[in-house]
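KCD17 protein
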Amino acid sequence: GVRMRMEGREEMQGAVGLRCTWDIPPPAGAQAKWVRLNVGGTVFLTTRQTLCREQKSFLCRLCQGEELQSDRDETGAYLIDRDPTYFGPILNFLRHGKLVLDKDMAEEGILEEAEFYNIGPLIRIIKDRMEEKDYTVTQVPPKHVYRVLQCQEEELTQMVSTMSDGWRFEQLVNIGSSYNYGNEDQTEFLCVVSKELYNSPNGLSSEPSHKAKVRSTLL
C-alpha cells in the first residue's frame, strides 16, 4: 500500500509540473508583479506581464522561475550576462509590439539578442528590415546618358521611329536652315535623346557614366 501511495504522489507532482506556468494568475501584490533585471550591469524594471508577452522566450521562463535557476544580485534582480545596449529596444518591443531603434544602433546587434532571448516575432521583423535594406542598397539609381543628334526635317520622323536600345526622345530644337538644296530650304533640327544606364554588380557600366553629349550627323 505504501508503494501505491508513493507512485500516486509522483504522478500528481508530474501533472503539476506539466501545467503551463503562464496559465496560473500571478499572486497579488507589488512584489510578484514587478521584476528587476540586471543586464550586464544595467538594471531594468519591468513587469511579469511584459516579460511573458512572448511565452516561449527566455525572459518569460526566467521570471516564472521554475525552469531556469538564475543568479540574482544584492537587490534581488535577475543577473543576465548580455549587452544592455540592445536590451532596451527588446524590452520596449515586449511592451508595445514595435521595434524602435536609434539611428546608430546596429540591427545585427538587436537580432543577436532577439535570438538569444528567443523572441520569434522580433527576429522575423529584424530579418525583414535587414532584407529590405539590402535590397535598396543594391538598387543603384540609374544614370542618364544624353546624345544630341542633328538631322533634317524629312529625316526626323524616320529617326524618332527607329530609335531602339532603350533610347528615349527628350527634346527637339529647331536650329533653322543651314543648307540650301536647290531652291528648297531644309530645316535643321537638333534631337536630344537619353538612355538610362544601370550599373552592373561589379560597378562598371556599359556606357560612360557622365552625361555625354555626342553631336553626330545622320547621313
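thats it. Residues 26 and 107 are 34 Å apart (CA to CA). Residues 120-138 form the longest helix (19 residues). bye
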